[in-house]
Amino acid sequence: MLHHNRPAYPGINVTAARAITARVAEAATVLITPVTLDGRTLHRVLLLDAAGAEVGTADAARRALRLLREAFPAADWSREQLAHLGRADLTEQRYPAAPIDLGLDAEGGDR
Asked: Long-range pairs for 45-49 at CB < 8 Å and ≥24 separation?
């Protein structure tokens, strides 16, 4: 699947990245996905190693979310975010909703 990503917040935050890797040394990325449940938005947080395997505990994931929200306050937390700990940056993940040829997205419209 192609990603159309953009920086979620200008700059980097080395302090947050170091704080996360201090708790879970093997963590390479943090994937934060908003989930709506009973009208409330919660966040599913996955700490992933370089191979994409989940690492760390639920407590470490909650702490990572808190650190990243504090480090990147202007990020759109209603969208999926990916923190690259080695680069100490946060990227908003954007996925195309449907192929444009289907005419289902707002840009393509009905043809």
From this structure: 47/20
String of DSSP letters for 44-76: EEEEE-TTS-B-S-HHHHHHHHHHHHHH-TTS-
7, 91 Cβ separation under 8 angstroms: yes
Domain encompassing residue 19: 6-102
DSSP assigned state of 36: E
Residue 51 forms part of a structural domain: yes
Classify residue 109: in a domain, yes or no.
no
Please report whether residue 108 resides in a domain.
no
Question: Of all residues in the chain, what percent carry a pLDDT higher than 90?
Answer: 58
Residue 48: inside a domain, yes or no?
A: yes
pLDDT band at 108 (very low <50, low <70, confident <90, very high): very low
The predicted model gives 52-56 an average pLDDT of 96
